[in-house]
Structure formats: structure tokens, C-alpha cells
Amino acid sequence: MLLASKARRLSTGIFFGTLLLLGAWLHRDYGVSWDETNNHLNGLVNIKFIASLLPAGHPIHQHPTFVTTPDIRDFPDAHHGPLFEMSAVVLSYLLTDHDSRSYFLLRHFLIFSIFTAGAWALYRLGAHWLRDWRWGLLGAGLLVLSPRFFAEGFYNGKDIVYMAFFTLAMLTLLRLCQRPTVGRALVHGLATALAMDIRVQGLQLVLFTVVGLWLEKRWGTEPVSNRQLLQVALAYAGATVVGVLAGWPYLWAHSLPELLEVSSHAVRYPWGFTNFYMGRHLLVGELPWHYIPVWMGITIPLPFSLAAVAGIGTALRYGWLRRWAALSTPAGRTGVMLLLWLLGPMLVVMLTHTVVYEGWRHLYFIYPALLLWAVQGIRQLVQISRQTGWRRTAARLAIGLGVLETGHTAVRIVQMHPHQNVYFSFLMGEVAEQLFERDYWGLGYRQGLEWVLAHDSSPTLTVNVFWHYPLYNNSLILPPQDRARIRYTPGGTARYYLAGYRWHPQSYLDSLGTEVHAIRAGGVKVLSVFRRP
Q1: pLDDT value of position 259
Q2: What does the pLDDT average to over 172-195?
Q3: What's the rounded Cα separation, in Å, for the pair 479 and 417?
Q4: Please, are residues 156 and 179 in contact by the beta-carbon 8 Å criterion?
Q5: Measuring CA to CA, how many Å separate 185 from each of 236, 333, 398, 401?
Q6: Average pLDDT over residues 424-433
Q7: Cα dist from 30 to 161, 394, 421, whole Å
Q8: Greater model confidence, 220 or 190
């Protein structure tokens, strides 16, 4: 027993320690995504508002950075959860030289650190559900081996951070259901507030909590009195409300009922661009019901998806055979929660036509549940592989093919670095280019700018782009001396034109100049650099 405990501590320590070291090594390689500058501004807006309330906050309020920062009542995106953004602003002020490059490098490492924390929560969930820390660690490993999630774990301060905190909240929920105490209710309430302070959709954790406690009350082996449930509910509600208010200054400036308005705004977010999907440009209101399932299918490694289907299928068969008796075990009740976590939000989006865009990133928070079901499917295959007959042969063949394909995925992560965000699971590059959006984060512009800087020694480099946002954003992470050489020049006089392929599957016109460089990853063209004579 002691030896097993040491093996667990050593293995998990090595895994998560190595993951953090990997983040420290690689976080400098990624560009600045489309939303990051506006997200940073959201953090500044909220810090400015807090400073205005403090007796000693006047010097902060008059700082040059905050003089040009909008008021929280005038900033259109102030309703977005600001907790991470405020933290990044404060840490950047304390730890960096206040240059934009230093800020974004720190920000990227902070996001990856939270991604690692989310992987740890996933590990704990798997170990709790499957009663073996090794299965939990496998789940965390599958998350790291998911190319798009690995890449976005460095720069996606919305969806990845929300996924991590949501996973942590689900862990605290399962602990609460295991032993409903006031202390655990307070911890779970704070975890719920953390998720809500990133995205208002964290409100659904309240519903998950109600369902989880009801399952425990109805089918749990340990009796839970109504008085105990009331105490737990009050502690949870109080901690959630206090935590949300503490981390969301927007609610200080308005009122608590604004939260409902924010929720409605999030569901019907007025996003005016189009999605390039299945070879067509579609407005968000025109997206078909299969938009989310298809994007999940083409961006999740195929063995993970198939294993999850196998895991869910096995659980449904077990539930059908045992009926309500399946809920008499903690594992059975946890399985119900994981199934609701995976399928509930997806069905809501598909049935209510909730605004989604840029793939399925708004539902990234359900991915840990899918991975847990994948681990369950793998566990079932391992058990079958120990039997006799043709089932053993089939299971071993499936495991072998899955290991080979997962190894191939790991190789692709290395080969595509730092553009794992254009990973398509089984689609050929040429097919993906014609059917789906590519670099919708605009990260390739950093490597495009770096190529121009390295191959042209002119003191001033004139550059044009279709949208100036990704050019500006990615110039901010360049060293100051390189940043000073870049001059955005709209019109036809710029010497260089950086062409992305977010909404442009076809080739560009020759009038832009000669294509002197192209960035490709996984057979997909990410960006082209054109030069005029």
C-alpha cells in the first residue's frame, strides 16, 4: 500500500511538473489571438473601476494607462467575466517591465498554468469515478494530447480558462455529493463562482448541483436529512453569490438582476461575422443543427471520440439491464452527472440555436467529460482484452490501433508547433481548406511578421492586411526594436501583404504581389506572405 502511494505521488508529480516545465519552455512561441487585446482592455476597465472606489485609488486612476481606459459603464464588453483578466493585469504590473511583449508572454504562461490546473482536476475526477489514479492520469494525458486544446491552452483566456474552472467545480461537486457538509458546500460555491466570473454560463453549475444532490438524496446509501440539505444549499448559495460579486465589478456598477440580462446577452451575442462551414459562408442564425457535432468530430483525435462512444455505450447497456439499481452506486450516479455534463449543453445549443462561432470553442468545457468517457471505454477494452476468444483479439487490435494513432497525434503536435490550432483529425489538408475555417485566431500573423523582419533589413517595413486586428495584435508580442520597424499601410502601396485564410479558402489575386513565403501546418496553409517589387 505504501509503495502504491509512493508510485502515485511520483507519477503524478512527474506528469504535472513536466507539463508546467513544457509550458515554461513553449509559451514564448505562440502569437496573440484575435480577442486578447480586447480581453486585456476588459481587465483594465475593471481595475480602473475598482481603483475609483478606493480612498487611495486616485493615483492609480490617473495612471496614463487608465486615463485612456473606458469607463465600465461605457465599455460594451464589460459584462464579460473579468476575473482572469484582472489577475493578469495585476500580475503583469507587479512582475514585468510593462512592455506589451512582456505582458503577453506572462499572460500565455498564466493561461497554460490554469490549463494544467484543469488537467489536474480532470485527473482527480477520473481517479474518483474509476477508483484508480492511473485511469485519472490517463484522462489528463488525453487532454494534453489533444492538439487544439494543447495550443489554445497558451492563449485562449476565455474558453480554456473556463473549461479548467468548470472542471474544478465539477470535482468539488462530486466531493460535495460524496459527503454533503457545509464546508464542502462553501468550497463548491467558491468554485462555482470562479467559473461564473469567467463566463456567465457557469450558472448551469447551479443546475448540476441541484441534480447531483437530488441523486444523492434519492439513491445514496448514506441518509441525508432535509435539514442537512437546507444547510448545504444555503452555504452553497451564499458562497456562490459572494464569490460572483467579489470577482465581477460589473455587478457593483449595476445590480444583481443584471446577471440575468448578461446571461440572455451571452446566449444571443450579436456576432455579425460569418462562419465558413462545409464550404459555405453562413451567419450564426443560418448554422445547421450538426455544426457542433461535425466540428467536434473533425478536431478531436478519432481514437478519443470512438473510445468515448464505447464508454457511453457500455454505461447505457449497464443502465438498461439494471434500471434504477444502477444509481445505487456512487459510480453510477457520477456517470449520470458526466453524461449530463457532456450531452446537456450540446443539446441546448443545438435545440435553442444559441449563438456559436469559430468552431465549438464555446463548448470546450464539456470536453473533459468526453475524455472521462473515453477513459471508461478504454478501461472496458482492457478488461475485454483479458478474456478469451475473438473478443479478446478484437479488443487488443482496437487498443493497438488506438495507441498507434495517439502516438501519431503526438508526433503531429510536435510537427505542427506552434500551429496545432489548425489540427484536423482525419481530414486531408486539401479537404479541410475547402470546407472549414482555418486560423480563426489569427496567430499565423506573428510568424509572418517574423519572416518579413528576418528577410528584409529595411528600417521600415510597410505591411497591409485585410483585417488590421491580427496584424496589430501580433506586433505587440514582437521585441520593441522589431515592432518599431513595422508600419501598417492600408491600400496598394505597402510592400508586403499578409494573407490569412479564415474566410478565404481560394487563392489570392496576383495583384497582391508574389507569394514569397507560406506557413503550413498539417498540410493546411495558414498564412501567405506576398511582396511587391
Answers
A1: 58
A2: 97
A3: 21
A4: no
A5: 5, 18, 42, 43
A6: 93
A7: 17, 41, 11
A8: 190
Distances (CA, A) of 436 to 271, 283, 453, 467: 18, 14, 30, 19
Q: Strand, helix or coil at 515? A: strand
> Is residue 27 very low, low, confident or very high in pLDDT (cuts 50, 70, 90)?
very high
Which residues pair with residue 462 across a beta bridge?
487
Q: Which pLDDT score, from 0 to 100, does residue 356 have?
A: 87
Q: In b/e form, how buried is each residue of 127-150, taking b as 16+ CB within 10 angstroms?
A: bbbbeebbbbbbbbbbbbbbbbbb
**What pLDDT, in 10s, does the model give residues 460-516?**
999 999 989 999 999 999 999 999 999 999 988 999 999 999 888 888 888 789 999
Q: At residue 318, what is the residue type?
A: Y
- Closest by Cα among 201, 198, 174, 200 to 188: 174
Q: Is the peptide bond before 418 cis (omega within 30 degrees of 0)?
A: yes
User: Measuring CA to CA, how many Å separate 246 from each of 24, 66, 81, 197, 243?
Assistant: 30, 21, 12, 9, 5
- Under 8 Å CB-to-CB from 402, ≥6 apart: which residues? 303, 306, 307, 378
pLDDT-derived band at 326 (thresholds 50, 70, 90) equals confident
What pTM, to 2 d.p., does this model score?
0.95
| % of the chain at pLDDT higher than 70 | 95
Lookup: cell for 320: 438498461
pLDDT range class, residue 246, cuts 50, 70, 90: very high
Q: Which residue is listed with cell 526594436? A: 481
CA–chain centroid gap for 394, Å, is 35
Q: What is the DSSP string of 439-502?
A: -TT-THHHHHHHHHHHH---S-EEEE-SSHHHHHHHHTTS-HHHHTTEEE--SS--SEEEEE-S
Instruction: List, as one string, the DSSP characters of 258-318.
Output: HHHHHHHHHHT----SEEEETTEEEEGGG--TTHHHHHHHHHS-HHHHHHHHHHHHHHHHH
pLDDT for the residue 435? 94
415 in helix, strand or coil? helix
